[in-house]
Amino acid sequence: MRLAVCDEQWLFVSVLAAALAQHGHQTVLTTDEPSVLLDQAADIRPEVCVLDITTGSPSAVEVAEHLAELEPRPAVVLLTDSCQEGVWEAHERGLLQGVVNKSCAFPVLMATIDRVAAGDRVSEGWQQAERRLHQGVVDALTSRELEVLRLVVRGHSTQMMADQLGVSRHTIRTHVQQVLRKLGVHGRGKVARAAAAAGLVDVATLSSTEGMQG
């Protein structure tokens, strides 16, 4: 089978491509740059693309959207240990035919590649609670709380948020406390990772909030 492998860690790409070759697959592209995959995909015509893109742009979902426009269209497997915003929605829509946790054994990935090539939709190594966490938290947070959350992740102070949103510092503190409660964390320093894990922010936008005063 003709495969393309794109992972931000070049060493991992090389090892994975070698392992796939040992099992009879032809790796027609190995790269750590999503743009290279998008530029060459139409010419190399992979049957399956294996991705792990967790930072920067384009995202894994955006790459999958571009690949879906190709004819013939390759299946896409996201091999990752951290699902970002939009991943499960893309999986449900059929943009990401496979979503495999990197903690899974290599034979699981091999089986997934075979299954998505045959037209199946596969997820391996994820608990149902992890898959539903994103939507559950989004439903729980109000639109204003989501605004506050994203400002906290960007490192804004209480006063900066109050000025930007046109509300009092007391109101901001109330929103922050609600966000902390709904994310199940204590202290702003843990908000960014919790929000990323819930798919509410992109890892690339994370700023350290350690030591912030409000």
Overview of the structural elements:
By secondary structure, this protein is of the alpha/beta class. The chain has two domains: 2-126, Rossmann fold (3-Layer(aba) Sandwich); 132-205, Arc Repressor Mutant, subunit A. The protein has ten helices and six strands, in the order E-H-E-H-E-H-E-H-E-H-E-H-H-H-H-H. It has helices at residues 10-22, 34-44, 60-67, 87-93, 106-117, 128-140, 143-153, 158-165, 169-183, 191-197, and strands at 2-7, 26-31, 48-52, 75-80, 98-101, 122-124. The protein has a six-stranded parallel β-sheet, with helices on both faces. Strand 5, helix 5 (106-117) and strand 6 (122-124) form a beta-alpha-beta unit. Helix 7 (143-153) packs across helix 9 and helix 8 crosses helix 9 (169-183). The chain is elongated and about 60 Å long.
